[in-house]
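thread: overnight batch results

M.L. [08:02]
morning all. the overnight job finished for the chain we discussed friday. pasting input first so we're all looking at the same thing
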Amino acid sequence: HNLGSQVPNETLVSRLIQLGADAVLVSQVVTQKNVHLPNLTRLIELLEAEGIRDRVVAVCGGPRISHELALELGYDAGFGAGTLPSQVASFLAREVAKRHRQYRGGR
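M.L. [08:03]
and the structure it wrote out:
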């Protein structure tokens, strides 16, 4: 499901729960005074507060997002400029399968 642009974190988490989603992917534009950093951190905090962080694969991306920054903010991965869609898809396929085995008894 694509929820569109400028979706509040609370709405994202609510829809994740309603849908039983396996992953959340956030594209973040760099903002003045780095406002995007607390916004990204807040999403992870909300996932933790709802008790679903461990089972949901959290990915962020954008022109100034690095994998290292994403990990520092609590995400499972970060993809920046030059990333191919197939790289993101491969990561998601591996991580979702891993989480299914861990949390849902999948194979």
